[in-house]
Amino acid sequence: MPDPADALSTRIANKRDDLIALTQELIRIPTLNPPGENYHAICDYLERRLRKRGFHCVFERATGAPGDSDAYPRWNIIARREGKRAGDCVHFNSHTDVVEVGLGWTFDPFGGELKDGRIYGRGACDMKGGLASSIIAAEAFIEECSDYAGAIEISGTADEESGGYGGVAHLAQLGYFDPKRVQHVIIPEPLNPDRICLGHRGGWWAEIETFGEIAHGSMPFLGDCAVRHMGAVLEKFETDLFPAMAARHTEMPVVPEGARSSTMNINSIHGGQGEPDEESGALPSHCVPDSCRIIIDRRYLIEEDADGVAAEVTGLLDGLKASRSDFDYKLTELNRVVPSMTDKSAPIVTTVDQAIRDVTGKPPEYVASPGSYDQKHIDRIGKLKNCIAYGPGILELAHKPDEWIGVDDMITSAQVIGHSLFALLTPNKT
Ligand SMILES: [Zn+2]
């Protein structure tokens, strides 16, 4: 008798044309975020497909979430298919939104063109290819093992690219990721078919404003220059903060290697009056700036915590207040995201590890993400720790022009996902 897991792999490989068409159709629904377009349309599309395969579908709008409006409602879909008997629920979560197109495309960003084994389009790898792979894997599994235990869930969620508050965070608040109803979560973000992503670093965002006193630009000594005060802040960052951050290393397997230390980006700086419109030809008036603002993006490690990260920055600013005459500042925290890291011994990790070995013949590589994704909400709000990101596609192609997903990669990932379903939901397998 053929091995049922092998039969499942063959069945998935035979669905190649269906997988390509599904990926193309998902790409052709332009779910741009911002502003958050066509969320209902893509949920409708998924509902039409999954209902036919026996899934019960629920739509949830994140009314009142950031960005939600009647013009741009934040719609999410949760599709669930019960098995024949009690058992675990395996949930696949994909975000349906894509980032702006940008310049430099040689393919139609919403055309879904297939060329030389690659499907091109915005969201091809991040992450409509992953969504399509998980759907094909689930459908093949249902056909092959119709008497499975537990349940399979597939969600398509909004706004991951803008923090996930209108998507996974909202569903987690409603209890969809309660460990009593969902036991295993795979997020098919683009990480290559042979890598398991255990989690991500944390983030802390803040605006810092320095103050001065406005005066005529010809007599700056009569005022106080807020930009020079900000210069002192930036110098403190260079001499104290950046070296301290670079010296900290994490146990998390973050890729690329440079992100295994703490990092900080200075997103923007603005001081004084607004720059005149380029076309206007107007000259600026001569004023000493009384305000200068920067926005910082501090990514921190699982070994650090957000309060400590904030205290480190305010400590430097308070030091300047003590040492520099007329220095004053205001710090406004904009957002914080906790790091998340699933234990390597968690059942979803050991299951997918074995599935990768079975399908590819090689052990997986373990990674963690430098930036965050929706795992943070499943972990912190849902209190569900048995969650990984695993899916096809090359992370470096995400958000770039001519983004693509390889069909072979999608097949391999779908086979790994299929094997994982087989291991988790057919406890009586031989
Ligand atoms: Zn993504």
Strand numbers in spatial order across the main sheet: 1-2-6-3-7-15
Share of helical residues: 25-40%
Unreliable sequence segments: none
> At the third CATH level, what is the topology name of the largest domain?
Aminopeptidase
Short description:
The chain has ten helices and 16 strands. It has helices spanning 4-13, 16-27, 39-52, 124-144, 168-173, 226-246, 306-323, 347-360, 375-380, 407-425, and strands at residues 56-61, 75-82, 85-95, 114-115, 118-120, 149-157, 184-187, 195-200, 202-211, 263-271, 291-300, 329-337, 340-341, 365-369, 387-389, 404-406.
Describe the structure.
The mean pLDDT is 96. The radius of gyration is 25 Å and the shape is elongated. The chain has a six-stranded mixed beta sheet. Helix 1 runs antiparallel to helix 10 and helix 4 crosses helix 10. The protein folds into two domains: 4-200 and 339-425, Zn peptidases (Aminopeptidase); 203-337, Alpha-Beta Plaits (2-Layer Sandwich), CATH 3.30.70.360. The longest helix has 21 residues, at 124-144. The protein has ten helices and 16 strands. It has helices at 4-13, 16-27, 39-52, 124-144, 168-173, 226-246, 306-323, 347-360, 375-380, 407-425; strands spanning 56-61, 75-82, 85-95, 114-115, 118-120, 149-157, 184-187, 195-200, 202-211, 263-271, 291-300, 329-337, 340-341, 365-369, 387-389, 404-406. The chain is an alpha/beta fold. Strand 4 and strand 5 form a beta hairpin. The structure holds zinc ion. Residues 95, 126-127, 160, 189 line the site of zinc ion (ZN). Residues 95, 126-127, 160, 189 line the site of zinc ion.
